[in-house]
Specification:
- This protein is 72% helix and 0% strand.
- With 168 residues, the chain is mainly α.
- Helix 1 runs antiparallel to helix 2, helix 2 runs antiparallel to helix 4 and helix 3 runs antiparallel to helix 4.
Length: 168
């Protein structure tokens, strides 16, 4: 069966908007993880690597959405250019994580944002009317569920390490 295009009645405005919204969500996530990777780099390189890997996953999801939009020939879909400057969230996240308190705050923020992103992706998948987009979004939901687990483990391990350092 051929892939429908934007001119086909099976591709409607809601599908276009879902795809565009999902793409913007992934780009924001990618930039957030890149900023967090930089923040953790000086004192917690293992967490920095995790954040960088999660950012790469967001980039891959964004590219998958780009490919789908191109296949569907969605005219209004234009990937946003990457900013030239580092983007850091407006939340209370410092440029560099220098102590346990800041690490816990940043991990709390990352975990909260990941849960939020997971919920949004689940809603997008739930209300998607196109099989191609639905399958892709369902895959994203599973990836984001795993992402949340990884962040929960990182937060738990950071707490364990802090307790060990204080008792030693």
């Amino acid at each position: 069966m051929p892939t429908p295009t934007a001119d086909d009645p099976t591709v409607d405005r809601a599908t276009d908007e879902q795809l565009i919204f999902a793409h913007k969500l992934e780009r924001r996530e990618m930039l957030r993880y890149r900023g967090l990777a930089l923040s953790f780099l000086p004192t917690r390189p293992h967490i920095s690597r995790l954040m960088a890997a999660l950012g790469v996953e967001c980039e891959q999801r964004s590219l998958a959405l780009d490919k789908l939009a191109k296949r569907l020939e969605i005219r209004d879909y234009q990937p946003a250019p990457l900013p030239r400057r580092l983007w850091l969230p407006k939340a209370n996240v410092h440029l560099f994580i220098v102590n346990d308190i800041l690490a816990h705050q940043a991990l709390d923020y990352a975990l909260s944002a990941a849960h939020h992103s997971h919920q949004i992706s689940a809603l997008l998948a739930q209300f998607s009317r196109m099989d191609n987009l639905n399958a892709l979004l369902q895959h994203f939901v599973e990836q984001k569920r795993h992402e949340c687990r990884l962040l929960e483990e990182a937060k738990e391990n950071a707490s364990t390490f802090s307790e060990w350092a204080l008792s030693g």
